[in-house]
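Quick sanity check, Protein arginine methyltransferase NDUFAF7:
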Amino acid sequence: MRTFVCVKTQQLVSRVFSPSAAVRWRAAQSRFLCSSPPDERKSQPSLLRHLTSKLKATGPITVAEYMREVLTNPVAGYYVRNNMLGPDGDFITSPEISQIFGELLGVWIISEWMGAGRPKQLQLVELGPGKGSLASDVLRVFSQLRSVLGETSVSLHLVEVSPALSLIQAQNLTRDCSQEAVSEDELVYRRGTTAAGLPVFWYRRLDDVPAGFSICVAHEFFDALPIHKFQRTQKGWREVMVDIDPDKPDKLRFVVAPSPTMASSTLIQADERRDHVEVCAEGGSVVQQLSRRITEDGGAALIADYGHDGTKTDTFRSFKGHQLHDVLSNPGSADLTADVDFSYLRRKAGGGVACLGPVSQRTFLKNMGIDTRMQVSLHH
């Protein structure tokens, strides 16, 4: 079965947890609920200096380029420089709170593998694996169901842009059994082995993961990919750009491009009814890659993220210390995110794969048996 499942995490209802867990969950989800922070922490202005000099030289840049610089700039990018996950970071994801989430995904993966005829090779691919918690929980299920997997060759392939996070993942998944590549040209920049003897490989790009039957999981990965923002005007669609504020040279502001850009001419649907649209072209490209892999080699993909089905308009936001933060203020010090447009991803997946969903995370977890799993946990 060639499958895409889109799961919306924004609609997760805390009732699927015990009351005390629900309280902890809501506190953790303050990433999405809190208002502006009281005082800015000590700023690191190097990225702002870099951006302002770039803007002076080239003029306004797209929101996508701004996001790319802020999140992945090799020197001062947020993902490159920080360990942003967990209670002391800027946000928490589901696997950091409960292992049950990852365990149920493990059951889903094995179910998809069985539905595909139990291929002799199973590549588990995760995009943006965080601290490695999700992969760890999934692999625990694999070890518990070793008799089901039989002689199947199982390997873990992690697509991670952050060297700092890859180290944390390696510690969590392989203890001290990992090593970095000698040359930067190597596609696998880190490799290791889990305690159970499963090989683990790290890549910078999905394209670098070898061909073969693969089940891919992208949990809160697409919401951090760069978006283009567009505004409907009397002259037609125009792209929203980032520029220096002429009244405050050390501040940034949004401006509307005076004429069409390449993106505004190519990325908007002819029948679009909204007046403000966000399009993640990079996300579309990743989905196309996943679709091609599934079509050619078999497999499935699950995308779990905060998102909508082509209905929302302005969702671009920033989080710092679990609180909302101005997206243009102190770039590089806070996470940037935008809700995933599942209708766009579905279009980009094309007709070669079956696309299911999006459904709420609550519905997905209930279908996977979370209520039964919770009862087992509460009685142990």
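Posting the structure with no commentary besides this: The first helix runs from residue 19 to 28.
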